[in-house]
Amino acid sequence: MAYMGATQFKAFQRCEAAALATLRGEWAEKKTVALLVGGYVDSYFSGELDQYKEEHPEIFSSRYPYGLKSEYKMADLIIERMKRDRLYMLLMSGRKQVIRTGFIAGVPFKIKIDCLLNAAQSKQVVEQFPETAIAMGMCDGAIVDQKLMANFDSVWSPEDQARIPFVEYWGYDTQGAIYQEIEGNMLPFIINAGTKEEEPNLCAFYVSDADLAAKLAEVEDLAPRYQAIKEGREEPRRCEHCAYCRATKRLRRIIDYKEVDFL
Q: Are strands 142-149 and 189-195 parallel, antiparallel or unpaired?
């Protein structure tokens, strides 16, 4: 409640009512296998894997043969694939889980950066991989966010009625805008990503400063409203499509069956 964050901001974008209910402890999103696998990989690179295993006993099988469930054995294979790639590991060579706080449009934000590269580490990336120079900018450092995806395919967006890049669909560009603004040094935002395919794919993406600036303008426009909702000065809107809205829906009328596509 004290700070807005990238995850919280995106939750408000999806459904204001669900986001507020989650903050109040009235609603909890289910832990999906996808989230747990992603957390497993993140915890390895942050040096917290043993702690993660202790906190998530559900990743272990309760039947013979005991040990990690197959999904998490796959995560180990993905980690090994990442470790074999020189550029991937260089991008993960900075300080891990760096916390920063600041304000956007008068709203307090807190971020936790997966990996923050300094100038020397950024220069090392460019020296060894000259084609990264465009993404790395002035080599003053870089914000690196690690993602584990099903694949890198574009995703169908009902709102846009078109397939859009997964970075936009999942709001990673919005996350990058928040991180860049709060970190404060206008560092490039890099997404270091792997996939959960049978043969894991790896790719490093960057979001241009122009795209980050456009997303920051959206954050500046919406954050004050979301803060007002948190403080009880504004009523949250329901999206009427998410799990929370379905669970708390109250019937008010009887509709023509032809309207069902619009519910």
A: parallel
Distance in angstroms (rounded) separating the CA atoms of residues 76 and 254? 52
Q: What is the CATH number of domain 6-30+85-235?
A: 3.90.320.10
**pLDDT by position in tens, the chain (length 263):** 999 999 999 999 999 999 999 999 999 988 888 889 999 999 999 999 999 999 999 999 888 767 889 889 999 999 999 999 999 999 999 999 999 999 999 999 999 999 999 999 999 999 999 999 999 999 999 999 999 999 999 999 988 889 999 999 999 999 999 999 999 999 999 999 999 999 999 999 999 999 999 999 999 999 999 999 999 999 999 999 999 999 999 999 898 888 776 55
Segments making up each domain of the chain, as ranges: 6-30+85-235
Q: Are 122 and 168 in contact (CB under 8 A)?
A: no
Q: Are 156 and 168 in contact (CB under 8 A)?
A: no
Q: Report CA torsion sign: 118, 123, 124, 130.
A: positive
In angstroms, the CA 77 to CA 223 distance is: 39
Distances from the Cα of 243 to the Cα of 18, 64, 157, 166, 169, angstroms: 8, 34, 18, 22, 19
User: Would you tell me the crossing angle of helices 16-23 and 209-230 to the nearest 10 degrees?
Assistant: 60
On whether the pTM is more than 0.90, the answer is yes
